[in-house]
Amino acid sequence: MDPKFFFFAGFFLLGAVIVLIPCVVVIGLRSNCPDKTTDSPATSLTASLATTPAATTPATLTTTTATIWNESDYQSNSQYYQSLTNTHYFNQTDNLRLDRLSSPQLHPTDGRSLIYLRRQYHMPDLRGSTTTLHWQDLQTNKNVQLTRPIWGKQDQQFTWIDKNTILFLSNRASSDLTQIFQLTLPDDLSTLSGFIEPTQITNYSLNIDNLLVNRNATRLAFSCQVYANLNIEQTNARKQAELDSGRTIYKFDKLYIRHWDEYYTGLRNHPFVVSINRQTNGIFQLSANPVDVLFNIDSDSPTKPFGDAKAQWSFSASGNSFAFTRQHDEDSSVAWTTNLDIYTVDLRTAGQPTVCITCENIATDTDPSYSPTDENLLVYRSHSVPGYESDQYKVKLYNASLNTKVTLLDDWDRSIQAMTWSPNGQSLYLEIGEEASNVIYYLVNIYTNHSVDLLIDNGTSHNIHPHPTQERTFVFTYDTLLQPRNIYLYSLDSSIQPLTNHNTALLSKVILSKEAQKFSFMGANNETVWGWHVPPAHGTGQPAPLAFLIHGGPQSSWYDAWGSGWNFQSYSAQGYAVIAINFHGSDSYGQNFTDSITGEYGSLPYEDLKLGLDYALRNFSYIDRTRVVALGASYGGYMINWIAGQPEMSSRFKTLVCHNEELFFSEHDAGNYTVYDNPSAYEVYNPVNHVANWTLPMLIIVGAHDYRVPETQGIGAFTALQRRNITSRLLYFPTENHWVLNPQHSIAWFDEVFNWMRQHAS
């Protein structure tokens, strides 16, 4: 083998291990929700804006759980920030103290109220969190916290069955395992003065990780991590036996060995489907033994690491059919393919086999969603290029009675990120990345003219939940670079109403940049490229250093979105101008723009970054060109190492920050070559070939549990820097993965990065 490959392995590796499953590198935390007080609306959004064995006996419970709560240890962020007398510049600690809101659902029959999730963090030290269910009346804005906030307890994945009943997952069980719970609501929630104690429905020996209830509340599906040929209790017994053996040995006969942040030792996400019924006391119970739909199949559904039941599972209108996504990972090809398929199973008769409805396509098919009115229709998202995780997602309509598939909006060049049926089964709400915003379109009628209306054209919108009776009315989450996530109501008259204000007190005590400006310039190939400019929070009246941010992917974008990690406001509040370029390959400017970097992953983005920096220094004159710092994560980390070896570019920076350097899906990005078939395709943009040109101080950050980007890559780069006697530092997180998720570690990350930037660019 070429000796450069050994040097490459010894100092740092170009890109990640080839691990090909769909993944979008988006730095973000799960959203959630305030204290038990009445809330008023937030600031208005502006116009800019089965043949398998049973799992095990259900072990159903009908007793209400009671958990001790130390009320004196509870303080909302509103209470804490209201106690502060002075304002201060925003920082990462403030960012992490924000309540995270998610999963809004309107009342299932009248739509006059909603329930959502709110995650709060222990104030002010962030040593713990809790996620609770909240209710809000849309007419009066009365807000009630339904479940008791207990540190370490997380409510999730709820379904509003009827006006009095919610089924959800929580680890409130005395075992601390996540189980299914029921919340029984009073007729008039506005008069509720205390918390509602939920009733535990299941009591399995393993965590329940996903939950989906059919529309009629006659069946539900849940997932547990089991061994493919064992049920829940047998899996638990095997795990205990392995623990008691005193041995820790992993044995592999195929790939994956490990991925993301876990070793693949045999445990699989398997969906279990079971009938349910309501008892005379109003409490649901499992009325049969759950059936493992994937029993004896060495595969996952939902897919790892980020699949979830909301997107990848669906019950038909009657609840008699179940559709799910699974990956083809029975052999090692899972490590270099992106082949996901959709299967359905008829639940009316026991022992029915699963049927693959997309196996003719060896690219990705995922996210099945049955029509709410037609038993035979479902939509799903589909790629057409095998092995390419950033291929354009198109929406396909499948008719089971005719066994036909139709591609909707086939002439579009945007990738569909999510879709939601209207309650009448005629239309679809579509979430689409478009020019660095996550916008919402409305496909008016999927059966006739396929016309679309743009409903929301700015910011980042997710989590659409339609009104049960009113057309073009829905709740959703919305955030921008300038404001964190809140829940909004979109109405038929196109009005947009903010519904939540849990973070108002916090935001009133911090100083933020009030401007996020889009700009464009002529980039590589004489094509228009876009970027973001965020000025320092203290203004532009004096020269300011520049934080030049490089996004990951590379097929992603710097979106108009609030970040819990790489938040532009965290940099601007420290006095930095922020420039962030959505270079060639970014994912929200049409598929041709995204595809353009195949075989050019080290050239076109690099040219765009050079030209984008030129534009910024030319047009934002307050930026001090002698104090410029480049920072990148993931693919951005790869680009940092590439820039370090290119003197014409590296000479423009005072220092570099590289977080978890990687190049993902390297076979496709290298032009569909393996490294042994065409080594030159990998060597042409290999930073190791230019280490002799490295001169700049560099801060390198790695997470030991980032198994797509082995820690040896960062250690190798640090070794090369030290060997060349270049000022450098390695920041090593032994318990973090590709992201830094522990709040204490996140604060330390920013402290270290800003200290390094001040040291070298002050």
Automatic annotation (TrEMBL):
The chain crosses the membrane at residues 5-29. One of its GO terms (molecular function) is serine-type endopeptidase activity. Residues 565-761 form the Peptidase S9 prolyl oligopeptidase catalytic domain. Pfam families: Peptidase_S9 (PF00326). The keyword Iron-sulfur does not apply. It comes from the Eukaryota. Keywords: Hydrolase, Membrane, Protease, Signal, Transmembrane, Transmembrane helix. GO terms for biological process: proteolysis. Belongs to the peptidase S9C family. PANTHER family: DIPEPTIDYL-PEPTIDASE 5, SERINE PEPTIDASE S9 FAMILY MEMBER. This is Peptidase S9 prolyl oligopeptidase catalytic domain-containing protein. It comes from Rotaria socialis.
